[in-house]
Amino acid sequence: MASVTYSTGVPESAQLHAVRRRKEFFSKGLIYTLLIVGAFIFTLPLIVMVSTSLKSFTEINTYPPTFLPNQIVTTNYAEAWGFQTTNFPRWTFNTVFIVVATLPGVVLTSSLCAYGFARLNFPGRNLWFMLTLASIMLPNQVTLIPLYILFHKLGWLNTFAPLIVPAWFGGGALNIFLMRQFFMQIPRDLDEAAIIDGAGHLTIWWKIYMPLARPALISVALLTVLTIWNDFLGPFIYLSTPDNFTLALGLNSFRGYFAQIPRNDYIMAISTLMVLPMILMFLLAQRYIVQGFITSGLKG
For the domain 81-295, what is the CATH code? Predict the structure, then answer.
């Protein structure tokens, strides 16, 4: 059967294909344009921070302000890092110490709780899991006073214990939920085969589930490191001695030194140094993070 043609002599199927390709090209172009504009808007504060950290004190206080530095001043980083009234090396060590001491507790206990919710049948399992999820909606400020009184009676104030020990008891409701969703995707045939071979639940969790859950574990670890690295309220409440400050708390005290004459070049330089490790860590682990969230059923 001959194909129907228009006055142009071009077959109808070819014209429809051309129209579809033009629509597809236009829609993709629009989507990519919106993504580029959105990415620029979200990265603009980071660009301004880095740009300000490379300006001289005179240029920062000129009007109208410049977007990019006329002359790059890299000495702001060294001068701010070694400022006489601060101790950023000590504060960095404190923050890294808290991260290293907290991370194993979060990963191990959250995955262990998640395994129980995903694979063990015990009375009230669904109720306990719902209560665990409900705790996500509970603001930290609600439990702040009871926890402060508890840590005061234990003699833990002005120590790192309030920032480390709680992480070893569950690892956080969000992390439990993320790991539980991941474990639910693992076939039960692996459990049954391991049980036939004489393995217990702890062996199954450690030797089967933990290796398979590497993407989810990396996602939990990254979220934990990011939370601890940027945490200000916890150190502000429990730490009082400058030698025990973390980076977030130290940066706030550093900003207070320039209340009369703001040195935004120094403040932005330290802020850039503080943000840089998190950006590098995210770039290195983003493949595992996306895989962990998608496999856990948390697709957007």
Answer: 1.10.3720.10
